């Protein structure tokens, strides 16, 4: 099977892609034998290998080599592929859902990815016979794809709609959620769906209507409610399919409607169908306010995508009504509510965003209000916002302990911020709910505060922003200040942590246009953290929460502050916090074990704060600027170097962050090195020397070498060399052997070899006598006596043109000379 996989992906000199006829002939031979070999399909132990073969055929070979096969062979292959994909879809989903076994699931992903390549690449293959091209599109691609989509739906729905087995619960955790666990299937499934948009929109709309009707009958007692648990699971899967079908989500959370949906709308427009904007608003309003009413009269007057959105809104409205009624609350479930919010967030955000694609469509004669988008009407926006705010805030109020559900609800609210921030900020329902909601007690307090800050900033109205500031931020600040004055106790300290997490959410919601206001607010909180670090030094959770707040302030807020005075105020306060941390927290790390993750995370957070400060440090050093970012970092390094021993550096994340911090310091603020004490500089050099040994990984070796290069380069310049102390120069001398050996031992590791050559060049340029002395010691070793003459000539040739201090181009030339030098001394030099 492995050999067949290799043959399926055969390319390169033995099978040049440019020779199309040879490719077609080779694939013909391969497919003929493959179909003969697997007439009955692969055995269970061959499943994954077989799917890999199909995957490689489509991904590693030009698609034309498959599409241009003889009609009989092509039809047999596509027919077999369709049948086997449908078979494996059932087998994989039955095992994944019913037995929590995912081997066939992983194999199915390979087939789905191959089918996506076929769908996306089909248009690059042209046929002389249009009838043949239409036959391929319809009989071999479109309808088989619809059958595969239907097979997936049948296997995730219970009887009578499908044949989903009883679910076997897997271990709890984010990775076992269906939306994440099956994302590798949902992604290619979305591409398949977009190939058959009209059929999918109609099928999914019908499914949602049937599901809604069944639930309504159970809720009113018109039918037996024994199927309710299965129905909830069915609806959960329908919501997941919906969220991953005709709408997509980018990495930054922004959503979009698939371009094929616009193509479908434009196609209907060209056929003479037009959709009334007023009818669209009327239809969506009915779905939200009277979801059980008959909406059949709108079927020909509303765009198919909007009809599907309407059914989603109708279910969301019914779910909200059920969940807010104590009598019927048990008819829905938190997991189903999460899936509903997941789909609702994507649809609302996608259908509210105007993209370049939609603007392009406008030039094709299709009016803007005819696009498959939510109407941009002020009155309708109020209705939509009221609906979403009621649904989201009622969940936060009634299900505050369901952290994941609350997070999905908050994300749904955020989905409307970009398009309707002002309407949300003026919503009476929002403030009515907030009055009865203790934000600091919610598990998702940080994310809710982030959402509220984003809403206020996006509203772009000073009066609205001032109102939200007074109603939300000021009371939280006052309560926090009052709590800080109380004696430490478990309950009080827990409240303080809750407030700190709220303020952390404020920092996370900062943007360039809102940073100045938020900085002034958060600075007062940070100032209060100084005495808090002293009075609560025994409480690690409080200390961690303060560090997290500082991290997000330096990441999201202070980075936008250009005022020198405000930056200096922040740095001065950070210096006080560092002093407290040094005095009270350093003892925590003295007996630290490698597997002590909580303490390590604290330390990583502290180092990241310092890195953020360096990236913001734009001020010049001097007596007047005693609290610049570089000086804050130097003060912290004195503390960190006392604990950075070999045991501490065995923690990968701590080690990487620490050595990167050193690199940032010497790159961003090399001038600050002249103010570092001899003792600190010696400790810094010893730490870099330890990093060069290679025992902590290649990245740390490379970072240590790069840092050393920058330091030596700085002090090697004509202006700064007089500032270099005798002790520091001796440190460079002591590190030269390690650098030279690192260079010789890592010729195959390009990045490390390059950095080692640069560091060696910098030290030689700083003081050539150090290198001459080292070479003399090498040549005097007894083990080098036999090859002494050859080695001496090689070193002489290497140093024909002595390196020049500060000459960066010389580093590249020196590296080329080192390669010649290494070729000359292969196997001859001993430095042990």
From TrEMBL:
GO molecular function, one term: nuclear export signal receptor activity
Signal peptide: none
Keywords for the protein's UniProt record, in alphabetical order: Cytoplasm, Nucleus, Protein transport, Transport
Cellular localization per UniProt: Cytoplasm; Nucleus
Gene Ontology biological process: protein export from nucleus
Entry's Gene Ontology cellular component terms: cytoplasm; nuclear pore
Protein family according to the UniProt entry: Belongs to the exportin family.
Protein known as: Exportin-4
Organism expressing this protein natively: Caenorhabditis angaria
């Amino acid at each position: 099977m492995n050999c067949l996989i290799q043959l399926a992906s055969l390319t390169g000199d033995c099978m040049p892609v440019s020779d199309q006829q040879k490719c077609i002939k080779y694939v013909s031979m391969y497919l003929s034998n493959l179909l003969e070999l697997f007439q009955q399909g692969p055995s269970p132990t061959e499943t994954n290998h077989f799917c890999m073969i199909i995957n490689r055929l489509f991904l590693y070979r030009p698609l034309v080599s498959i599409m241009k096969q003889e009609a009989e062979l092509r039809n047999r292959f596509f027919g077999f592929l369709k049948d086997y994909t449908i078979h494996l879809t059932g087998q994989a989903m039955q095992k994944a859902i019913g037995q929590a076994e995912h081997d066939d699931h992983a194999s199915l992903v390979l087939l789905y990815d191959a089918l996506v390549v076929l769908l996306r690449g089909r248009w690059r293959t042209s046929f002389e016979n249009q009838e043949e091209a239409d036959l391929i599109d319809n009989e071999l691609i479109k309808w088989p794809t619809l059958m595969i989509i239907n097979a997936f739906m049948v296997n995730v729905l219970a009887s009578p709609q499908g044949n989903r087995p009883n679910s076997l619960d897997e271990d709890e955790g984010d990775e076992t959620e269906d939306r994440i666990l099956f994302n590798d299937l949902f992604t290619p499934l979305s591409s398949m769906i977009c190939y058959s948009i009209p059929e999918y929109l109609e099928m999914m709309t019908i499914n949602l209507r049937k599901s809604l009707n069944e639930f309504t009958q159970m809720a009113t007692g018109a039918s037996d409610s024994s199927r309710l648990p299965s129905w909830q699971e069915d609806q959960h899967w329908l919501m997941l399919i919906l969220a991953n079908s005709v709408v997509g989500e980018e990495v930054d959370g922004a959503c979009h409607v698939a371009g094929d949906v616009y193509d479908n709308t434009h196609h209907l427009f060209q056929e003479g169908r037009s959709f009334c904007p007023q009818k669209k608003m009327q239809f969506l309003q009915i779905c939200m306010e009277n979801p059980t009413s008959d909406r059949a009269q709108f079927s020909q007057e509303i765009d198919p995508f909007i009809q599907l959105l309407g059914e989603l809104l109708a279910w969301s409205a019914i779910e909200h009504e059920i969940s807010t009624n104590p009598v019927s609350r048990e008819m829905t479930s938190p997991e189903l509510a999460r899936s509903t919010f997941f789909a609702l967030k994507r649809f609302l955000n996608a259908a509210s965003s105007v993209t370049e694609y939609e603007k392009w469509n406008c030039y094709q004669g299709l009016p803007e209000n005819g696009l498959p988008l939510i109407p941009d009407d002020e009155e309708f926006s109020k209705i939509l916002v009221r609906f979403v705010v009621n649904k989201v805030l009622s969940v936060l109020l009634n299900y505050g302990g369901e952290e994941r559900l609350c997070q999905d609800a908050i994300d749904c609210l955020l989905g409307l911020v970009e398009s309707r921030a002002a309407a949300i900020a003026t919503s009476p329902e929002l403030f009515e709910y907030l009055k009865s909601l203790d934000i600091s007690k919610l598990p998702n307090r940080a994310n809710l505060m982030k959402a509220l800050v984003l809403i206020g900033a996006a509203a772009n109205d000073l009066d609205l922003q001032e109102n939200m500031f007074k109603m939300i931020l000021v009371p939280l600040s006052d309560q926090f200040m009052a709590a800080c004055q109380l004696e430490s106790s478990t309950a009080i300290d827990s409240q303080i942590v809750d407030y700190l997490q709220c303020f952390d959410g404020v920092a996370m919601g900062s943007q360039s246009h809102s940073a100045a206001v938020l900085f002034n607010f958060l600075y007062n909180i940070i100032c209060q953290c100084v005495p808090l670090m002293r009075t609560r030094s025994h409480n690690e959770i409080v200390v961690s929460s303060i560090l997290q707040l500082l991290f997000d302030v330096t990441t999201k807020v202070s980075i936008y502050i250009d005022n020198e005075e405000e930056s200096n105020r922040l740095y001065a306060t950070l210096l006080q916090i560092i002093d407290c941390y040094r005095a009270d927290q350093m003892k925590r790390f003295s007996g630290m074990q490698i597997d002590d993750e909580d303490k390590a995370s604290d330390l990583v957070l502290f180092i990241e704060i310092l890195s953020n400060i360096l990236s913001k440090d734009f001020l010049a050093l001097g007596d007047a600027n005693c609290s610049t970012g570089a000086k804050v970092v130097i003060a912290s390094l004195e503390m960190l170097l006392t604990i950075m021993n070999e045991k501490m550096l065995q923690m990968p994340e701590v080690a990487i962050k620490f050595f990167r911090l050193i690199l940032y310091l010497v790159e961003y603020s090399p001038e600050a090195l002249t103010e570092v004490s001899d003792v600190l500089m010696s400790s810094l050099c010893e730490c870099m020397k330890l990093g060069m040994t290679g025992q902590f990984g290649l990245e740390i070796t490379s970072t240590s070498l790069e840092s050393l290069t920058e330091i030596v380069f700085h002090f090697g310049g004509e202006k700064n060399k007089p500032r270099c102390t005798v002790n520091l120069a001796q440190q460079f001398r002591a590190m030269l052997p390690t650098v030279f050996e690192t260079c010789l031992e890592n010729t195959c590791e390009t990045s490390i070899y390059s950095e080692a050559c640069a560091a060696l060049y910098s030290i030689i340029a700083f003081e050539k006598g150090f290198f001459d002395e080292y070479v003399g010691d090498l040549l005097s070793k007894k083990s080098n006596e036999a090859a002494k003459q050859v080695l001496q000539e090689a070193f002489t040739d290497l140093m024909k043109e002595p390196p020049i201090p500060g000459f960066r181009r010389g580093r590249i030339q020196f590296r080329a000379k080192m390669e010649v030098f290494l070729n000359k001394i292969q196997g001859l030099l001993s430095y042990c």
